[in-house]
Amino acid sequence: MKVKKITVGFIQENCYIVFDEKTKDAVVIDPGTDGEDIVEELEGLNIRAILATHGHIDHVGQVGYLKSLFDVPFYLNFKDRFLTNEELFPSFAKALNAYPCPEPEFDLENIDRLEIGNLKFDVIKTPGHTPGGVSFYSKENNFILVGDTLFAGSVGRIDLPGGDSKMLEKSLNRLMELPEETIVYSGHGVNTTIGKEKKTNPFITGRFKLKW
């Protein structure tokens, strides 16, 4: 599997296209804004599904646009459906040119393993930043897509609707159990590794507390 990162919008959100080099089957993860740019990066690939790590509008704002072009299913943890309503943060949604988010066809709360063609992920539940946050882990390819749960040197904020510091702490502890060489693809910012965050992230080492 190959991972292509597309940083979109004024908030610099990372959308990911994960694809199989042989079959060209692909999934789009967290299409937040700049839908036309995302579609351009899909040239030559066969999009099979749209996945979301969580329901914030800067991660699902272009799901509706993509589904208007591609007849593919949308996967989201149903616990986050309330967050996809653009009326929750109307000015933010307008600035992102967000499309109304369609209902997801599949509930990631009830899925532990995704197999879409040759693309295979373990679905790890990582709530805290949102109630339904999930991460997509490929042990075979040594990477994990964590959305806004974990960043290089930081972690997801918990002061938005549904945020929970205790849940986030449990989720971070679970991520830290992964092999240290695991590449971490976050929802914003640069890539990192589990090992680096174990050693240097102040929210992991205990120098900073999970509160805002």
Explain how this protein is built.
The termini are far apart. The protein has helices at residues 35-41, 57-60, 63-69, 90-95, 165-175, 194-200, 202-205; strands spanning 2-8, 13-19, 25-29, 46-51, 74-76, 106-107, 113-116, 119-125, 134-138, 143-147, 150-151, 154-155, 183-186, 192-193. It is globular and about 45 Å long. It is an alpha/beta fold and 212 residues long. The chain has a 6-stranded mixed β-sheet with strand order 1-2-3-4-5-6, with helices on one face. A 6-stranded mixed β-sheet has the order 7-8-9-10-13-14. The model has no long low-confidence stretch (mean pLDDT 95).
List keywords for this structure.
single chain; 212 residues; alpha/beta; Metallo-beta-lactamase, Chain A; 6-stranded mixed sheet; 7 helices; 14 strands; globular
Number of individual domains: 1
> Helix and strand succession?
EEEHEHHEHEEEEEEEHEEHH
CATH uppermost class: Alpha Beta
Query: Which blocks of ≥5 consecutive residues have pLDDT under 50?
Result: none
> How many strand units?
14
Global Rg: 16 Å
Helix content: 10-25%
CATH fold topology: Metallo-beta-lactamase, Chain A
Q: DSSP helix count?
A: 7
Structure described in brief:
The protein has about 210 residues and is of the alpha/beta class. It has helices spanning about 35-40, 55-60, 65-70, 90-95, 165-175, 195-200, 200-205, and strands at about 1-10, 15-20, 25-30, 45-50, 75, 105, 115, 120-125, 135-140, 145, 150, 155, 185, 190-195. It has a single domain (about 1-205), classed as 4-Layer Sandwich (Metallo-beta-lactamase, Chain A), CATH 3.60.15.10.
